[in-house]
Design goal:
This is XdhC family protein. Residues 15-82 form the XdhC- CoxI domain. By secondary structure, the protein is an alpha/beta fold. It has two domains: 3-162, no CATH class; 167-313, NAD(P)-binding Rossmann-like Domain (Rossmann fold), CATH 3.40.50. It contains nine helices and 15 strands. A hairpin with a 2-residue loop joins β8 (151-154) and β9. α4 (175-186) crosses α9 (298-313). The two termini are 28 Å apart.
Length: 321
């Protein structure tokens, strides 16, 4: 899970239950160099207490000054930080970027508390949701996540995705898998490695949760949710194939297996014949896995894999940069 997101929503929920009105801020987009990415959140009270971050500190300072001056009282509005036109010169960010931020001023009423409870559950649970807000009315609701970008603004409507952090399940260990773990952690993924082989029993890598069991068993136990990517990278069909057979029966957003086109064609035939997978299920599997970067070494292959996982997560077609 994204720990900072959980702290923000947890604090907002606690303050709401104590009767404090609050401001919930969400980064919608960035232009140029910016310190935080879309989806980053901050919650603040009128007395200046806040949890979370929008930038390295400069935006937070200006935002809190605005609250102290009685500004930003609309239920929902979009504010741009970092522009350098006249009076707003002081809003320039040191990095030269621009942030577009959704700022909500919410009363601690029952509807807001219920909404925060749902957001808290989403961060702790296994579903991704979309916050759907009408800027003109100030209303908010939650929708099922259909994929796409983290935040989207269209006319008077704002949509922001929220949910558990990306989970990467490594179905078996290999040099490629270990590099994948390193890259995935760098972009904020929860990484779980599953391998039952005796020679892997002593595996340890900082930040990687190791399960000494068949990946298929781990996946079948309900550990693959909508924000999960399952990657099979061992070249051992006893591990890879069984993991794929289970993964396609889950809502995992990405399933992939390493191998050449010829190897992938044989695997597809085997999964249909032995595993009984349908054409639709086999079509969910990215094989060969990863972007075509001309990768040769384990580190390069892993980079191509994690890049492709991120591409699919953000809803980007393979042929669009």
């Amino acid at each position: 899970m994204r720990q900072l997101d959980l702290q923000v929503i947890g604090s907002a929920l606690r303050w709401a239950r104590e009767g404090h009105p609050m401001w919930l801020c969400t980064v919608l987009s960035t232009y140029g160099s910016a310190p935080r990415s879309p989806g980053a959140m901050l919650v603040a009270r009128g007395d200046g207490q806040f949890v979370g971050s929008l930038s390295g500190g400069c935006v937070e300072e200006v935002f809190l000054e605005a609250l102290a001056c009685g500004e930003l009282r609309a239920p929902a509005q979009i504010v741009r930080y970092g522009e350098a036109d006249g009076e707003r010169q002081r809003l320039q960010l040191p990095c030269g970027g621009i942030l577009q931020v959704l700022v909500e001023h919410r009363a601690a009423d029952e509807a807001w508390i219920d909404h925060l409870c749902d957001l808290h559950d989403a961060l702790l649970g296994q579903r991704r949701l979309v916050r759907d807000l009408d800027l003109s009315a100030g209303s908010f609701t939650l929708l099922a996540d259909q994929g796409g970008e983290v935040a989207r603004v269209q006319d008077e409507r704002v949509q922001v995705r929220i949910g558990p952090a990306l989970r990467l399940i490594l179905a078996g260990l290999s040099p490629v898998a270990q590099y994948c773990a390193t890259y995935a952690q760098a972009i904020g993924c929860e990484v779980i490695a599953c391998d039952p082989r005796e020679e892997m029993a002593g595996f340890s890598q900082p930040g990687v949760h190791f399960q000494a069991q068949m990946p298929s068993a781990f996946i079948a136990a309900g550990h693959s949710h909508e924000a999960t990517a399952v990657v099979a990278l061992t070249h051992d069909p006893r591990i890879d194939d069984l993991a794929l057979m289970e993964a396609v029966r889950t809502p995992a957003f990405y399933i992939g297996a390493m191998g050449s086109r010829q190897t992938s064609a044989r695997r597809a035939e085997r999964l249909a014949r032995v595993g009984g997978l349908s054409e639709e299920q086999i079509a969910r599997i990215h094989m060969p896995i990863g972007l075509n970067l001309g990768s040769k070494t384990p580190a390069e292959i892993a980079l191509a894999v994690v890049a492709d996982v991120l591409r699919v997560y953000h809803g980007k077609p393979r042929n669009v940069l």
